[in-house]
Write a structure and sequence with these properties.
This protein is α+β, with helices and mostly antiparallel strands and 93 residues long. Helix content is 37%, strand content 20%. The protein has a four-stranded antiparallel β-sheet with strand order 1-2-4-3, covered by helices on one side. A hairpin with a 6-residue loop joins strand 1 and strand 2. The chain is globular.
């Protein structure tokens, strides 16, 4: 089971790529913009497969070519190392 992230400096790489702390909770969020709906949906498919392998399930929404993602670990009540890992993986896709 993951633990709540204690060392917030581990979030610096995510912040450098556009992730921010959510306004209303202990979570990180980012909006990804793609060329079109097909590219956005393809990215979501690849991200979903990776997230499932991690047993981590992001909160996200898709409108045409944008995907807004929020990452938090509900089982620890906030941001965990699993969120940091998934954020980096999503950035790399």
């Amino acid at each position: 089971m993951p633990e709540k992230l204690r060392d917030r400096s581990l979030l610096e790489p995510a912040f450098a790529t556009g992730w921010v702390i959510a306004d209303d909770r202990d979570a990180i969020t980012k909006t990804f913009t793609f060329r079109n709906f097909v590219d956005a949906f393809g990215w979501m498919t690849r991200a979903a497969i990776s997230a499932e392998k991690m047993n981590h399930h992001p909160e996200w929404s898709n409108v045409y070519k944008t995907v807004t993602v929020t990452l938090t670990s509900h089982d620890v009540g906030g941001i965990s190392d699993r969120d940091v890992t998934l954020a980096a993986l999503m950035d790399a896709l």
